[in-house]
């Protein structure tokens, strides 16, 4: 079936566009030149000068009923209903009466899950079409580029944002690449139409510090160093030692009364690492090999910062007890392996084994293609669990691409599951989300219906795609 | 630290006790498991040559004919000898009850790197492309195929029984020729089914890049090549005597291209942009080539032209990100081409995850391709396109015993592969990945102990 650009969809989005350009939420915070005394007293030591300007799109009170619901918390509700009101989950359960004026969607035979969350993506920073002009994900000029922020590379017009939304994604984590020991700051965004990345930033989501183990930094910096894994470790430790000093200077200045005359000189590189040391953000560490993940935990313990997730964790299964005891999420693929030696021990049972051990198991994409169907990637991992005799239900496996992903990003208090009071990030699927033949039908972000397969909307795919195919061709 | 209750090394040594091998045994616990499996399913351990097998009561998708509910497939001496609802089961045959199961031909991936890559980032294990500009068309992948590659067992346990191993990249827009292998053997002599299968070249951005930086140069280069080969074909004696003008190709490359200009093997041209596809079709007509188009990201935009030319295409379904090669990429591409009458072959274009060929087929169905057409696109259609349809591709008497028994719909991601037969023999279900899983199935006995 062709996806046709529908004039109705266009009108709807034009209306939405107006709403976006006149946000009615809290007034934007003015960018400060540096940590102001006031900020130091009351807010974070290093405030964000690029705050979110996202405001939910217009929504209607919507009751979805007669659905098979996977809540994201491991539960399944048959013939269930979910009520979306004022952008939040207002009610969920077997029977909910229809509120006056509510739009009612009969989801008989359909499935409902929380919005998909992709915890490792490069959308926007490696935008489509994938040409050098849009290759903005790796600042490959120094093994430590903690000073760069992924959001400053994000192209809001990346057509892949709309394709991700169409795949049910309601939040995603865009990270810098893995060329560097410290690659920079990551950002969590919503894949919604916006002229600016600030308009996509997930309100309240912490930044992350992207770090990378193993072969990539070793290969990229072979000539100048680090060229070995031991060089990698020495690198991280020396950066954190410098950042400790930096953080102490700033904390002392704050504790001494934040006199503008004596304010320490800012250093963007150290600021990102210091913000990790003081807990404003966590590390998201690209590591394939088991032994390197355990080394990373030791480094985090040495300096007192937290690792929220191991990216790729191809050998997560070998140290699933360590992952559980440390309390870190392992972001994994269903079946990627072999493309380099540190990926050679990848097995299909990875996610199942990590899950079974009681650690935080998460499905991720790292890829604009498979990020459009993380539910299907989860299906492959679930099959591996079933064949290995590891008892995991579909309802539990849904957490791999919803609640556990939210946990990895530090946004599980507001999204990731269908629980009263959380953001109404919801997907209605045409059938069982673990079937290859199932597609998303409707995707709600903060209660607003942003993707509707029955009313295709050309504005979801960015300016780039507008008018680029011959007029007589319906895409 | 608590003392381990059982030691890892004990498990390993138990695996190969008494077996022949070098002293440093790289055995794995899987050996124990496979022996157990073999006993429990009454397969004699060690291969018994060509035991008769009857797969009964399955939902048999012959591909060449209608689906047979409650059908039986009989394999004898490595080939299919009977398929039907009511067929005689040979005496002494091993009977596999496929009630509630789906039976299909083994799947066939038309473009893979199986055996010619092992660790992707290590060039020493990579044998799929020529860096020698005197040996491009002449480059044939066969002798680079490592029959012991760990990628092969990982693939065959998923129901893929045949694969074309194709060359790629290198230093020329002509990449060389491919080989067709079965995934059941342990050495090249028993795996190699056909070579050369086809010649490979690229147009579009890739071809332009090799030819000097513009699309017309790629066409100029290919025409130069064909003119030289046609001239060489008529004047080989004069060439050998040194009485012919200089050719743009080495003697080895000219020789390798003879079957292409004679229409004996197909030329696989990688093209994606709608305009490039039409150019490729023109070129094929100009030199009367047996063309197969590969990639065809914008195929749906010119599907009627491709169908009219009678040129088959090889593509994947999981592709919708716009590139300047295929701004019109979309999931419906396969279904739209099929609707227009194009002969479509689906491929993974992969090495490590050739097993996801099933997912490709399922995605194509999800976006409009009829299920039976999807199954055909990974079985009989590739067999026809690569000229081996009299041997494989469907469940018909006389064809090779490549049969898979699935727990359900082969394209569903939760479906298991219950049995795989290649040339009438059940495969080993061991793989390096399974060995790793078995080792780490429990952490008990895995040091250090926490």
What's the structural blueprint in terms of helices and strands?
The complex is a heterodimer of chains A (475) and B (450).
Chain A: H1 7-21, H2 37-42, E1 62-70, E2 76-85, E3 88-93, E4 103-106, E5 111-114, E6 116-121, H3 159-166, E7 169-174, E8 182-189, E9 208-212, H4 215-220, H5 229-255, H6 268-277, E10 282-287, H7 290-303, E11 307-312, H8 320-326, E12 329-332, H9 350-356, E13 360-363, H10 374-387, H11 394-397, H12 403-409, E14 426-429, E15 440-445, E16 448-452
Parallel strand pairs in A: 1-4, 1-5, 6-7, 9-10, 10-11, 11-12, 12-13
Antiparallel strand pairs in A: 1-2, 2-3, 5-14, 7-8, 8-9, 14-15, 15-16
Chain B: H1 8-16, H2 30-40, E1 53-60, E2 68-76, E3 79-84, E4 94-97, E5 102-105, E6 107-112, H3 151-156, E7 160-165, E8 174-177, E9 179-182, H4 188-191, E10 192-194, E11 199-202, H5 204-211, H6 215-234, H7 236-240, H8 251-261, E12 267-271, H9 274-286, E13 291-295, H10 303-309, E14 313-315, H11 333-339, E15 344-346, H12 357-366, H13 371-377, H14 380-385, E16 403-406, E17 417-422, E18 425-426, H15 432-440
Parallel strand pairs in B: 1-4, 1-5, 6-7, 11-12, 12-13, 13-14, 14-15
Antiparallel strand pairs in B: 1-2, 2-3, 5-16, 7-9, 8-11, 9-10, 16-17, 17-18
Question: What would the keywords be for this entry?
Answer:
heterodimer, A: 475 residues, alpha/beta, TIM Barrel, eight-stranded mixed beta sheet, 12 helices, globular, disordered N terminus, B: 450 residues, Urease, subunit C, domain 1, 2 domains, 18 strands
């Amino acid at each position: 079936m062709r996806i046709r650009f529908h004039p109705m969809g266009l009108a709807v989005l034009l209306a939405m566009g107006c709403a976006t350009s006149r946000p009615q939420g809290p007034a934007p915070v003015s960018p400060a030149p540096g940590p102001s005394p006031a900020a130091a007293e009351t807010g974070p030591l290093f405030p964000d000068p690029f705050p979110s300007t996202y405001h939910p799109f217009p929504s209607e009170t919507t009751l979805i009923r007669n659905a098979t619901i996977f809540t994201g918390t491991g539960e399944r509700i048959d013939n269930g209903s979910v009520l979306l009101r004022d952008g939040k989950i207002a009610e969920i359960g077997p029977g909910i009466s229809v509120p006056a004026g509510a739009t009612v969607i009969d989801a008989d035979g359909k499935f409902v899950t929380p919005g998909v969350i992709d915890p490792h993506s490069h959308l926007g920073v490696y935008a489509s079409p994938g040409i050098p002009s849009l290759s903005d994900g790796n600042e490959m000029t120094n093994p430590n580029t903690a000073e760069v922020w992924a959001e400053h590379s994000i192209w809001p017009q990346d057509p892949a944002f709309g394709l991700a939304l169409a795949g049910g994604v309601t939040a995603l984590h865009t990270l810098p690449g893995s060329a560097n020991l410290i690659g920079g700051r990551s950002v969590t965004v919503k894949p919604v139409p916006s002229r600016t990345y600030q308009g996509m930033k997930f309100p309240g989501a912490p930044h992350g510090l992207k770090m990378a183990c193993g072969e990539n930094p070793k290969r990229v910096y072979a000539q100048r160093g680090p060229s070995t894994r031991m060089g990698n470790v020495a690198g991280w430790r020396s950066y954190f030692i410098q950042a400790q000093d930096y953080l102490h200077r700033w904390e002392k200045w704050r504790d001494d009364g934040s006199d503008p005359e004596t304010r320490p000189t800012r250093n963007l590189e150290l600021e990102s690492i210091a913000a990790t040391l003081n807990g404003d953000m966590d590390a998201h560490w690209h590591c394939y090999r088991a032994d390197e993940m355990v080394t990373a935990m030791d480094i985090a313990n040495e300096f007192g910062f937290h690792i929220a997730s191991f990216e790729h964790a191809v050998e997560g299964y070998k140290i699933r007890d360590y992952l559980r005891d440390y309390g870190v999420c392992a972001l994994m693929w269903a079946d990627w392996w072999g493309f380099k030696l540190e990926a050679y021990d990848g097995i299909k049972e990875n996610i199942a084994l990590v899950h079974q051990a009681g650690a935080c198991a998460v499905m991720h994409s790292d890829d604009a293609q498979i990020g459009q169907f993380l539910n299907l990637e989860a299906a492959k991992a679930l099959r591996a669990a079933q064949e290995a005799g590891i008892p995991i239900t579909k309802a539990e496996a849904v957490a791999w691409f919803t609640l556990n992903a939210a946990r990895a990003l530090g946004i599980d208090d507001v999204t990731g599951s269908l629980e009263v009071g959380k953001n109404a990030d919801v997907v209605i699927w045409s059938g069982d989300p673990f079937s290859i033949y199932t597609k998303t039908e409707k995707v709600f972000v903060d209660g607003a219906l942003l993707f509707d397969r029955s009313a295709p909307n050309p504005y979801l795919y960015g300016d780039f795609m507008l008018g680029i195919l011959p007029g007589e061709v319906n895409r | 630290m608590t003392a381990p209750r059982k030691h890892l090394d004990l498990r390993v040594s138990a695996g190969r006790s008494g077996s022949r091998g070098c002293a440093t045994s790289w055995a794995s616990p899987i050996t124990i498991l496979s022996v157990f499996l073999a006993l429990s399913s009454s397969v004699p351990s060690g291969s018994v040559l060509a035991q008769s097998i009857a797969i009964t009561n399955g939902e048999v998708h012959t591909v060449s004919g209608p689906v047979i509910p409650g059908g039986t497939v009989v394999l004898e001496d490595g080939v299919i000898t009977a398929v039907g609802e009511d067929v005689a089961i040979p005496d002494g045959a091993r009977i596999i009850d496929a009630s509630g199961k789906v039976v299909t031909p083994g799947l066939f991936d038309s473009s893979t790197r199986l055996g010619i890559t092992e660790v992707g980032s290590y060039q020493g294990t990579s044998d799929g492309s020529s860096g020698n500009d005197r040996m491009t068309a002449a480059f044939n992948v066969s002798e680079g195929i490592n029959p012991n590659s760990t990628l092969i067992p990982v693939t065959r346990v998923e129901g893929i029984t045949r694969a074309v191993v194709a060359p790629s990249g290198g230093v020329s827009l002509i990449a060389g020729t491919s080989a067709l292998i079965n995934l059941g053997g342990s050495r090249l002599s028993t795996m190699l089914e056909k070579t050369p299968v086809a010649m490979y070249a690229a147009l579009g951005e890739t071809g332009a890049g090799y030819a000097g930086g513009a699309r017309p140069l790629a066409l100029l280069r290919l025409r130069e090549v064909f003119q030289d080969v046609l001239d060489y074909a008529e004047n080989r004696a004069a060439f050998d005597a040194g009485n012919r003008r200089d050719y743009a190709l080495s003697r080895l490359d000219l020789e390798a291209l003879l079957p292409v200009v004679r229409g004996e093997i197909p030329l696989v041209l990688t093209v994606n942009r709608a305009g490039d596809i039409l150019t490729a079709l023109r070129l094929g007509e100009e030199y009367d080539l047996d063309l197969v188009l590969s990639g065809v990201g914008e195929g749906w935009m010119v599907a009627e032209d491709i169908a009219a030319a009678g040129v088959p295409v090889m593509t994947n379904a999981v592709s919708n990100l716009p590139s300047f090669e295929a701004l019109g990429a979309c999931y419906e591409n396969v279904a739209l081409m099929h609707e227009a009458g194009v002969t479509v072959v689906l491929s993974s274009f992969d090495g490590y995850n050739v097993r996801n060929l099933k997912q490709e087929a399922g995605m194509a169905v999800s976006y409009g391709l009829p299920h039976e057409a999807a199954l055909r696109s990974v079985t009989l259609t590739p067999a026809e396109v690569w000229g081996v349809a009299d041997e494989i591709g469907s469940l018909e008497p006389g064809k090779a015993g490549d049969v898979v028994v699935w727990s359900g719909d082969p394209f569903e991601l939760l479906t298991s592969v219950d049995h795989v037969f290649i040339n009438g023999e059940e495969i080993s279900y061991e793989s390096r990945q399974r060995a790793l899983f078995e080792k780490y199935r429990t952490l008990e006995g895995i040091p250090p102990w926490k």
